[in-house]
Amino acid sequence: MSALDATNASSSNLHGSYAWTQSLQGIHFGPGSIKTALPKLLAKIGAKKALVVTGRSLHEKTDVVRNVENVLKELNAYGATFYEIGQHSPIAGIKNGLQQFKDVGADVIVAVGGGSPIDASKAILYFQQQETGGPYLKQIAIPTTLSAAEYTVGAGFTTEEGVKVAVNAPELVPAGIILDAELTLATPERLWLSTGIRALDHAVENLYRPLVPPPLKHLCYAAIADLFKYLPESKANSQAVDSRQKLQLASWMSIWPLQLERYSALGLSHALGHKIGARYSIPHGITSCLTLAPTVALQTELASEEDKEWLAGALFHLRQPSTGSIDGDIRKLSASIDSLVEGLGLRSTLTEYKVPRADVPDIAEQALGSKQNPVLPKVVALLEALY
């Protein structure tokens, strides 16, 4: 094998690790990596007893949680499993989870599942720190979807009134993340693919999000290309672990951890998703299926010239020819996203989720943060077109 062949052979390696110098100390990835990565991470952070936090369906309908529990039991580090975390992380589950965390004497949470248990675990640790005044305790995240909640410093959860709110602190980012594609095989197809569009939403909106440095924007280009390639492959062959592993890596690239990041909506698509998700019980991934493509098209009217150039540049990475104009390229990107959503069988409407038309102005106002925002009529029109 020549040196060039050796380089090419290793370029698609699906196993490895990455370490962050602050709160996020290690990301381990690769099929089957749970067995080696979880012991390493527990030892690195000095944790002795874990509370596993997950959702009811994952706990009752799959063996995924049992696999994690078994690794912890072999290490004599298993405390208990809490599985009352619902969609959009309701505050009632967070309060009950905090109580069980204290009852079992846990010093670490191992969150297993999608964005809801991972965000709920951050919230549990946030409120635990607020109660004790001591240091933040740690979370190890084992995601089974592509929503990428594990890479942020914030936790979104739903109040008793049904309003999505957030807490954030740099210490809330998980101390360890394990991307084991074998654990995603039981994830329902619609959830898996729609959270892939959520990851695409991260990558696209990071192209015009303030304070994202150019090197990370280029990672987002790579994420966009891989999500467009491997989401259809994963739909065609749901048992292809290599495609799933590459999608997990694309999800990571879509929202690469930023040391100075604060938890906030990345852009208009995310802001709209936050407002319609919990309020109308629309899953995270589906909100992106609804809002991303039209939001991208709207950037031809709203974005700065620099941000437009970044958006238009995505076509090159998708190996699509330019239309000859920046605005035309952005509209073509929007159409490509729309076609991807359609091809994955994820098209939906606000009518399907029983969102009253009368609520549209209020949703738009909340997403923009002001009734006086001059963009408000355009956002109202965007939402009206989703029925």
From TrEMBL:
GO terms for molecular function: alcohol dehydrogenase (NAD+) activity; metal ion binding. It comes from the Eukaryota. Residues 27-180 form the Alcohol dehydrogenase iron-type/glycerol dehydrogenase GldA domain. Residues 194-376 form the Fe-containing alcohol dehydrogenase-like C-terminal domain. The keyword Protein transport does not apply. Keywords: Oxidoreductase. GO terms for cellular component: mitochondrion. Pfam families: ADH_Fe_C (PF25137), Fe-ADH (PF00465). Gene3D superfamilies: 3.40.50.1970, Dehydroquinate synthase-like - alpha domain. This is Alcohol dehydrogenase 2. It comes from Trametes pubescens (White-rot fungus).
